[in-house]
Write a structure and sequence with these properties.
The chain has 395 residues and is of the alpha+beta class. Helices cover 37% and strands 22% of the residues. It has three domains: 4-120, Translation, Eukaryotic Peptide Chain Release Factor Subunit 1, Chain A (2-Layer Sandwich), CATH 3.30.960.10; 127-172 and 199-276, 2-Layer Sandwich (Nucleotidyltransferase, domain 5); 297-393, 2-Layer Sandwich (60s Ribosomal Protein L30, Chain: A), CATH 3.30.1330.30. A hairpin with a 4-residue loop joins β6 and β7 (147-149). The longest helix is centred in the C-terminal third of the chain and has 32 residues, at 262-293.
Length: 395
């Protein structure tokens, strides 16, 4: 799963000459044999672009070497998803297998080109799925596209691991006070000190779920996103009482999560968060439309204003289409924005820059189809090159 932390890493890397390669991949079937050939062709294209830009052939070969090494790596191609993204530059290589198919693309220039990955980070692109049983706790990074288990999260994994292997001890039996014990004790008539087996198990379960809730709250604190819990009704109820997630806890799948397969679990979880995602997008569109209708300065449509606001951390919500790149430059010192009809040296995709800066500074991005965007911007922009996005400012 490509996450915001990965985006931050790619942006921070920012090589002077970065290579970004996107291609579709296949999980099974005859088409898997074509994937290495696709990569070979894309690597050759990247090498040609490098030498065309004046890079020595030896240096160009060294830059694309990590991708070249994958071409004949049989095991690598046996474990793919629907898309592959490779980023090469300054001696570093990053690769991501993702659940969305990419068109074949090669970008060579300053930094890395990440726009094709933005649907994974859009507001309807990410949520957590937490599954809890007494025997197993699992956390998944999820989206409308996929479900990937997070094996590194610091969570208690089962009741014995966290609370220890504590056996139930039989309660102490005694005769009622002031009554002599003249024979064997009938448990039904004796006083019992201590919890019953059922109460003991419930107490341990409540304590365990509390530990899970506290650990997950810490895990989610830095980057809150919607959460779905899959557990039986008793465990789900205890978790809801003890977590501090509030409205981020969207809902619960009330069954044993180990009793259904991953596909069913993913579908059930996404069905719970989907109304939340659609509602958030609808509310953003409605608010922007209302502000545009009153010429409120918090709603902006020109790419110059949007880019400047994004870099200054002013954007609360950005609406963007999956459009072709808009090449240009932004000068942070002067605040000037240039747009170019074709890509020049040191150009970046200004749509991508606006989205990346919005996400990096805690804003929200929604990706709309062009028809929907046209409805939002109807009558509020006359420049075709700036009709692909609009933004709502924080102030």
């Amino acid at each position: 799963m490509f996450a915001r932390s990965d985006l931050s890493q790619l942006i921070a890397t920012a090589p002077d000459r970065g290579i970004s390669i996107y291609m579709p991949t296949h999980i099974r079937g005859e088409e898997t044999r074509q994937d290495p050939i696709r990569l070979r062709n894309l690597v050759a294209e990247a090498r040609d672009r490098l030498t065309g830009a004046g890079v020595d052939k030896f240096d160009a070969g060294a830059l694309v070497a990590p991708a070249t090494a994958l071409i004949e790596n049989y095991g690598f191609w046996q474990h793919q998803d629907q898309g592959l993204a490779l980023f090469l530059g300054d001696g570093q290589a990053h690769r991501y297998r993702v659940p969305i198919p990419f068109a074949e693309q090669v970008f060579v220039g300053p930094g890395f080109y990440v726009k094709p990955l933005l649907p994974l980070l859009a507001a309807d692109g990410a949520f957590h799925l937490l599954t809890i049983t007494a025997d197993k706790v699992r956390l998944f990074d999820a989206s409308r596209f996929s479900l990937t288990e997070d094996l590194d999260a610091d969570l208690p994994r089962d009741i014995s691991e966290w609370l220890g292997e504590s056996d139930y001890e039989n309660p102490v039996q005694a005769s009622p006070v002031a009554r002599p014990n003249t024979g064997s004790v009938d448990i039904s008539n004796a006083q019992v000190y201590g919890d019953s087996p059922a109460e003991w198990r419930k107490g341990r379960l409540v304590e365990f779920v509390g530990k899970v809730a506290a650990a997950f709250d810490r895990h989610a604190a830095g980057h809150p996103i919607p959460v779905v819990v899959a557990a039986d009704p008793e465990i789900a109820g205890h978790f809801k009482k003890q977590t501090s997630l509030g409205s981020w806890l969207v809902g619960s799948i009330l069954l044993n999560p180990e009793a259904i397969d991953a596909r069913q679990l993913h579908e059930a979880a996404y069905n719970l968060v989907r109304p939340r995602f659609e509602s958030d997008c609808h509310e953003a569109v409605e608010r922007l439309s209302a502000l545009l209708g009153t010429n409120d300065r918090r709603a902006i449509t020109t790419i110059d204003d949007i880019v400047r606001a994004a870099y200054r951390g002013q954007i609360n919500t950005l609406l963007l289409t999956d459009s072709a790149p808009l090449w240009g430059r932004y000068d942070e010192e002067t605040g000037s924005v240039e747009t170019h009809s074709t890509r020049a040296d040191a150009d970046t995709d200004l749509f991508e820059s606006a989205a990346v800066q919005t996400l990096e500074q805690g804003g929200t991005v929604h990706i709309l189809d062009r028809g929907h965007m046209a409805d939002v911007l109807d009558g509020h922009t006359s420049d075709a090159s700036t009709s692909e996005c609009t933004a709502l400012l924080r102030y």
